[in-house]
Amino acid sequence: MRLVIKIGTSTLAHSSGRLNIRLVEELCKVISDLKNAGNEVIIVSSGAIGMGVSRLCLPSRPEDMPTKQAAAAVGQCELMYTYDKLFSEYNHTVAQILITGDDVKDKDRYAHFKNTIFRLLELGALPVINENDTVSTEEIAVGDNDTLAAIVSKSIRADLLVLLSDIDGLYSADPRKDKNAKLIPEVTAIDEDIIKIAGGSSTSLGTGGMATKIKAASICMENGIDMIIANGATPEVLYAVCEGKCVGTKFIGKR
After folding, report:
1. Is residue 139 within 8 Å of residue 171, measured between CB atoms?
2. pTM (2 decimals)?
3. CA-based, 20 to 30 A from 55: which of 37, 100, 222, 227?
4. Nearest residue to 164 (alpha-carbon basis) of 149, 181, 153
């Protein structure tokens, strides 16, 4: 299986922005095991700005672009150091790829991007992709890593995209506000009802939310790729995903 795993800031870090060491260690262990089983894995990882906020002792996620980019520059170093250290313990080599919206829109740069990923997979490396927040601006940015993960999945003809978040999946209403909200196990089409359910960002450190996940699902489904939203609080959920078990919310790609 060629699997793209998007790891959200809420999965990687505590609310303080500091790395959730125990969870990240377990996540890298499970992903390493999936690679050992013969799966091709690509990670799309958030967290650079959030970790930078913590390292720079900022009181909250910055609003201005220069400070966001400064936080990203600091946080990306910590993020990749952590991945390199943990995956090396299981004899897996990570490769950092930072892209911007222009890299996706420009035909030649987009081709180079895809060729690089395919070659890394052939070499047995584990690509870790993030938007290049240090140089991106609102005008050229992809905007969020849910969308980026869907674009990556489409580019490399992935079998499945898994979005690991702080929620079990798509609910009939916001489960944080409505105790009667029910998990929707499967979605075969993005209609007005599904769009209406989606809201804004759920955390102060991240940029995503259910709306961006629905957008990602739309991209995947149009290109025949299945997508699953699952709770990243328990990394072992990835085993269930790869075994085809019912986990979270599955969006069925058009065949």
Report:
1. no
2. 0.90
3. 100
4. 149
DSSP string, the chain: -EEEEEE-HHHHB-TTSSB-HHHHHHHHHHHHHHHHTT-EEEEEE--HHHHHHHHTT-SS---SHHHHHHHHHHHHHHHHHHHHHHHHTTT--EEEEEE-HHHHHSHHHHHHHHHHHHHHHHTT-EEEEEE-TTT--TTT----HHHHHHHHHHHTT-SEEEEEESSSS-BSS-TTT-TT--B--EES---HHHHHH--SB-SSS-S-BHHHHHHHHHHHHHTT-EEEEEETTSTTHHHHHHTT---SEEEPPP-
Count the helices and strands in the chain (H runs, E runs).
10, 8
CA Rg value for the chain: 17
Cα 176 vs. chain centroid, distance in angstroms?
22
CA dist 158 and 148 (Å) reads 13
The CA–CA distances, whole Å, from 214 to 18, 66, 222 equal 28, 29, 12
DSSP SS3 for 159: coil
- With a CB cutoff of 8 Å and minimum separation 6, the contacts of 198 are 209, 210, 211, 213, 214
* Structure confidence by residue, pLDDT tens digits, 104-118: 888 999 999 999 999
pLDDT digits (tens, 9 = 90+) for 61-87: 888 888 988 998 999 999 999 999 999
Percent of the chain with pLDDT over 90: 61
